[in-house]
Amino acid sequence: MKEIIDEYCWDKERKLFTHDHHNVPGIRNFAHYALHKAFPPVTEHFHSNIVEFHCLVKGRRVTRVGSRDYIITGRECFITFPFEEHSTGEFPENPCEFYAFQINTLPVDLFLGLSDDLRDYLIDMLLHLPHRHYRISYNDLQNLKASFDALALGDSPDNVYLSLQYLCCFLFNLKNLEPILEKRDPYTSPGIQKCIDYIEQHYKEPISLSALAKISGYSLSSFKVKFKDIIGITPAEYITLRKIEYAKHTLKSQNQSITDLAFELGFSSSNYFCTVFKKYTNLTPSRYSLQYRSEL
Predict the structure, then answer these.
(1) SS3 assignment for the chain
(2) What would the pLDDT profile of 103-159 be if each residue is shown by its tens digit?
(3) How far apart are the first and last CA of the chain?
(4) Do 153 and 231 fall within a single domain?
(5) How many domains does the chain have?
(6) Domain residues for 49?
(7) Distance separating alpha carbons of residues 57 and 99, to the nearest angstrom
(8) Residue pair 33/98 in contact by the 8 Å Cβ criterion
(9) I need a labelling partner for 18 at 20 to 30 A (CA). Which of 207, 213, 281, 286 fits?
(10) Residue 183 covered by a domain
(11) Mean pLDDT across the stretch 212-225?
């Protein structure tokens, strides 16, 4: 287990500022990820004196802290504290979009552009947050986007000050966010719960969004918005993920051919199935099966 020091990156899927690129006291890294395929699991690591935030716009991400796995979905924020060991376990980084940033908790002059009193108050608050998993609003995500976008314009004082204003709005509002508790009910709408139950029973069959909307009791447009708001991903993505989870279990426990498995799950061809499976696991079905058996 080691400390990970990220490097500057700027491509289609990963845009990451390191401190030597933005030079803002109090911020280590600030990143925006828009992953369109799965990436290998993140190995166990820690960050010295760093409070790290992952704020999901959409999709699903797993973070393991100690021996516990946390599932983070759209419009949720997950926090790891200084020196905490964390990873994604054996789970790959799924296709998703999120903002990630690190706050250095060692007091320095001009920390986030704050006075010494505000700096000490904020650092103490961050280190003593009562929870690590919170729901965040659309406005919270807009503040993070505005903060990141301003910093991306360059390190002129105007851009840096504007970025810090938006970031501080997010940070000082943390205490007001709704925590996601350990034994939460993941589905707060009876109509959406009915859809989840229906998908669980019929995910191998063609399922139309119109049928799910009717089951939920919402109009089609309201259903799609409500489902994504509660679950964090679209209904179509949820159905696909359920198919992939079944495929992973089958590849581990049975000797079924990939073609038969693809058609059992309703894919039009084994090639298309393999493409979708690799998107969500970073491995082809045959490679996934071989790797699992070799680990055994």
Answers:
(1) CEECCCCCEECCCEEEECHHHHCCCCEEEEEEEEECCCECCCCCEECCCEEEEEEEEEEEEEEEECCEEEEEECCEEEEECCCCCEECCCCCECCEEEEEEEEECCCCCCHHHCCHHHHHHHHHHHHCCCCCEEECCHHHHHHHHHHHHHHHCCCCHHHHHHHHHHHHHHHHCHHHCCECCCCCCCCCCHHHHHHHHHHHHHCCCCCCHHHHHHHHCCCHHHHHHHHHHHHCCCHHHHHHHHHHHHHHHHHHHCCCCHHHHHHHCCCCCHHHHHHHHHHHHCCCHHHHHHHHHHHC
(2) 999 999 999 999 999 999 999 999 999 999 999 999 999 999 999 999 999 888 999
(3) 23
(4) no
(5) 2
(6) 2-176
(7) 8
(8) yes
(9) 281
(10) no
(11) 94
Whole-angstrom Cα distance, residue 149 to residue 23? 16
Instruction: Identify the CATH number of the domain in which residue 41 sits.
Output: 2.60.120.10
Which is it for the CA torsion 253, 247, 235, 202, positive or negative? negative
Of 176, 202, 230, the last residue of a domain is 176
